[in-house]
């Protein structure tokens, strides 16, 4: 039961909470604002908040000069590709571990998670050399493969925690009615599993979109996703704040919106069900 | 009750995931281990020869290793301290009733979705730049000399940037844990005359202990392998002032092409990460039984 709170106290909390929220959000807000400025307005002293000539020129420049959409498309292919392939491999595994647990299920789950603890840099050299020798360096296929494998344990785990909450009686009932394994999956399980699968998909697309170790080390101009494309702004030439901001805004906007929608599932997903 | 047929089916359904992960683990790991005992430089192909523990000896006696180890610990420790303390404070604040709770939650959460290269470059250029940055303007407007963050305090600056990215994660998880706190217990304590601090210390904090542990362990895994933020801001410098273990191994293997040395560093990084992993696995394992 919520306790009674005085209006004055609520007003004070509102003020503090909004101040802190806006301070934390400010770098993002500032980036978005700067992306609509001219380069000279972007470095004006004192800084211009809203009193500048709004322009879309930076967005046009970023696209024309560096073919932004190719990198955007690389990001889409890599993050969705790796997540979808991961789901295809993980759904049967998680399903069977949740509904037909054996003696070793627990060990398998823990072992899968342990592969996630493997620091990427520990296998950087062999993966790089294997990619070079097979001619896969700087291809999207390589990135899809690598990200599928590094996120597979998370996908299995998330699905497992969702599937485990589906009551087993429903399956029993379906079996009593003589439903085969296929019918069981299609009619009884799928409808109940879809929300969990959707959250898993969302969270993994976010993780893959922002992955910045393998994407930086295994790509060059051709298959670079947005993480690597933005990194090319680390050696600036001339005035570039507004262009950097425009590129950054386009890189983070889609995933920020997806992330806001998935915030409810985020906690349990990222803590493997340890905090709900 | 599962039948024999469904058990066989279950095994078939698990095997693709298991085989793939097994391959992903065994193949590159054994290659790293093997390379770490070789004299192997990409600039001298065909000159590979057995080196024994030479690479390890070189890696451990390289002054950069001690620096990288210190920096790794400072980076992990610094970010954890800021995010856990800040996360608790923000969670306590957001747990209070106020107008616009939903929106403030979204504002606080936002940095977590910003890709590492974007957040590092935005902070580096638009905030920390000693000439055109927002901080330089703030300093000048109160009559102070602007501070060149990434030159004079590179590691602290990177800690700040990374902490900004991870603060939302800690705050959100702690807030979720806080919301499951039994309010009757709180009210009873209040009636017995326990002050806010006492209530926080004896009821809230113990309740949060598990969530705090989870935050610390999960963040540690990610923080041990911070890479992009260093690459685009300082490139590990000046000198080795902001080089962590991940970055050191990257430099040795992909910039100096010393596969043997880089692999030895990789093995060391794996061992360090495993020490952390053991604790995390125990925590999550307990949850499985629950």
Description:
The complex is a heterodimer of chains A (about 280) and B (about 290). With about 280 residues, chain A is mainly α. Helices cover about 70% and strands about 0% of the residues of chain A. Chain A has 13 helices and no strands. Chain A is globular, with a radius of gyration of 23 Å. The two termini of chain A are about 20 Å apart. With about 290 residues, chain B is mostly helical. Helices cover about 75% and strands about 0% of the residues of chain B. Chain B has 13 helices and two strands. In chain B, strands 1-2 form a two-stranded antiparallel sheet. In chain B, helix 2 packs across helix 13, helix 3 packs across helix 10 (about 195-225) and helix 8 (about 155-180) packs across helix 10 (about 195-225). Chain B is globular, with a radius of gyration of 24 Å. The mean pLDDT of chain B is about 90. Classes of the chains: A mainly alpha (about 280), B mainly alpha (about 290). Chains A and B meet through helix 1, helix 4, helix 5, helix 6 and helix 7 of A and helix 1, helix 3, helix 4, helix 5 and helix 6 of B.
Q: What secondary-structure arrangement, pairings included, does this model have?
A:
The complex is a heterodimer of chains A (276) and B (290).
Chain A: H1 7-34, H2 39-42, H3 57-66, H4 68-99, H5 105-116, H6 124-133, H7 140-163, H8 168-176, H9 181-209, H10 214-218, H11 226-231, H12 241-261, H13 263-270
Helix pairs in contact in A: 1-12, 3-12, 4-7, 4-9, 5-7, 7-9, 8-9
Chain B: H1 4-35, E1 38-39, E2 49-50, H2 54-61, H3 63-95, H4 101-109, H5 116-127, H6 134-141, H7 149-152, H8 154-179, H9 183-191, H10 196-224, H11 228-233, H12 245-255, H13 259-289
Antiparallel strand pairs in B: 1-2
Helix pairs in contact in B: 1-13, 2-13, 3-8, 3-10, 5-8, 8-10, 10-13, 12-13
Summarize the structure.
The complex is a heterodimer of chains A (276) and B (290). With 276 residues, chain A is an all-alpha fold.
């Amino acid at each position: 039961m919520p306790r009674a709170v005085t209006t004055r106290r609520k007003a004070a909390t509102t003020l503090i909470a909004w101040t802190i929220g806006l301070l934390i959000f400010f770098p993002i807000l500032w980036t978005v604002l700067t992306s609509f400025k001219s380069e000279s307005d972007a470095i004006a002293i004192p800084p211009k908040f809203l009193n500048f000539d709004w322009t879309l020129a930076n967005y046009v420049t970023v696209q024309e000069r560096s073919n932004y959409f190719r990198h955007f498309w690389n990001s889409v292919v890599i993050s969705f590709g790796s997540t979808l392939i991961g789901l295809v491999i993980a759904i049967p595994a998680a399903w069977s571990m949740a509904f037909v647990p054996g003696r070793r299920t627990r060990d398998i789950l823990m072992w899968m998670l342990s592969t996630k603890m493997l620091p990427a840099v520990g296998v950087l050299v062999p993966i790089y050399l294997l990619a070079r020798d097979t001619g896969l360096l700087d291809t999207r296929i390589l990135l899809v493969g690598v990200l599928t494998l590094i996120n597979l344990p998370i996908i299995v785990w998330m699905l497992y925690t969702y599937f485990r909450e589906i009551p087993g009686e429903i399956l029993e009932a379906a079996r009593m009615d003589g439903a085969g394994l296929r019918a069981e999956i299609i009619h009884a399980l799928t409808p109940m599993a879809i929300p969990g699968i959707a959250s898993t998909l969302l969270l993994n697309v976010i993780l893959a979109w922002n992955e910045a170790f393998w994407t930086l080390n295994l790509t060059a101009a051709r298959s670079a996703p947005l993480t690597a494309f933005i990194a090319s702004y680390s050696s600036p030439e001339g005035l570039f704040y507004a262009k950097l901001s425009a590129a950054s805004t386009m890189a983070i906007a889609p995933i920020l919106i997806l992330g806001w929608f998935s915030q409810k599932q985020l906690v349990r997903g990222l803590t493997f069900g340890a905090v709900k | 009750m599962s039948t024999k047929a469904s058990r066989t089916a279950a095994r078939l359904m698990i095997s693709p995931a298991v085989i793939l992960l097994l391959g992903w683990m065994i193949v590159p790991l054994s290659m790293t281990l093997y390379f770490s005992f070789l004299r192997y430089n990409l600039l001298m192909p065909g000159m590979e020869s057995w080196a024994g523990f030479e690479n390890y000896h070189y890696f451990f006696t390289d002054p950069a290793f001690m620096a990288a180890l210190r920096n790794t610990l400072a980076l992990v420790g610094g970010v954890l301290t800021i995010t856990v303390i800040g996360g608790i404070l923000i969670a306590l604040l957001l747990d209070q009733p106020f107008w616009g709770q939903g929106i403030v939650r979204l504002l606080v959460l936002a940095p977590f979705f910003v890709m590492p290269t974007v957040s590092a470059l935005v902070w580096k250029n638009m905030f920390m730049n000693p000439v055109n940055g927002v901080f330089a303007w703030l300093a000048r407007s109160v009559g102070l000399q602007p501070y060149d963050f990434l030159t004079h305090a590179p590691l602290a600056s990177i800690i700040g940037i990374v902490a900004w990215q991870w603060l939302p994660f800690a705050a959100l998880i702690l807030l979720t844990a806080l919301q499951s706190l039994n309010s009757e217990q709180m009210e009873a304590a209040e009636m017995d005359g326990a002050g806010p601090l006492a209530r926080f210390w004896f009821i809230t904090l113990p309740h949060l202990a598990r969530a705090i542990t989870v935050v610390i362990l999960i963040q540690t895994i990610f923080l041990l392998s911070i890479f992009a933020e260093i690459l685009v801001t300082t490139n590990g410098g000046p000198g080795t002032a902001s080089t962590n273990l991940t970055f050191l191994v990257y430099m040795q293997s992909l910039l100096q092409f010393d596969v043997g040395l880089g692999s030895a560093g990789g093995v060391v990084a794996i061992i360090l990460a495993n020490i952390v992993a053991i604790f995390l696995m125990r925590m999550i394992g307990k949850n499985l039984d629950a």
